[in-house]
Amino acid sequence: MSTFRSIVFASVISGLIVGLIVTVVQQFGTVPLILKAEVFEKAAETHQHEATPQPAAAGHDRAGHDHAAHEHGAGDHDHGAGAWEPRDGFERNAYTAAANVLTAIGFALLLAGFFALRSGATGASVRWHEGLLWGLAGFAVFTLAPGVGLPPELPGVPVAPLLSRQIWWLAAVLAAAGGLALIAFRRSVPAAISGVILLILPHLIGAPDLANIETNVPSSLSHQFVTAVTVTSLVFWTLLGGLTSAMFARFDQRA
Amino acid sequence: MSQSQLANATTPVTLPVAAGQVGRLSQAVMAMVLGVFVIGMVGFSQIDVVHNAAHDVRHSNAFPCH
Fold this sequence. Notes:
heterodimer; B: 4 helices; 76% helix
């Protein structure tokens, strides 16, 4: 079996399993908090637009985001009142499950790509334990590093323009990945120092933020959400790292 | 010419293995690019419909949303 096929098979199977498990975990952690926050979000929305009632289709992605986006003039996406969105309940959760599976497959493809490179270089397959460590690295790179500057946000909490946050998020992720790689694989003092500097750099520059934030969403809810997201992500990454490495080693050996 | 220089000169003998590694490298990179594309679509695409479908996942993964 070609390396590419081994990577894809291993990623699809692990992504499917981990995506579905995480969907269940989210139902007890992040999703109830999102739904609670949307009550505040909608209440604020009705209050703001009493004079100009919004079409009912605005749904859970209140049209308020439109205004934020337009005010910032960042060319952000438009939650047009007519845009399709899943109905609350089963449909919404089904799309969440699908998106979770796809996200897990995407990250598994990245992980398995590294496993292929690593086992190609060392001659020995990456065992589940090493894979779990790679998963922890993924947690550090994709959750901790961007989360320090851009903590997980609930709907209804005002945030800086989308594009600037996406750019900073990507910069933080790349810097963290590069920094960790320098420390883990170069094993020299200058490399370690530049690695740490690289890890810190995006935070010295600072994430895009609003000067003053006014929201009806209680801060206790936001705090719970940060905890829920971080713990769920830890479950996601450790499972994905361990499972993907075990799967990839199986498929790759049969090659 | 010393023994070690000779040894260095003969290292290209491992060329077939190296060529195999290149194939592995390009396939691994291809898979990783595919992974980045999938994550980008689910987590970062600004298309309304994609955003609304993946809304809860974006918030749950702390991807920048809205």
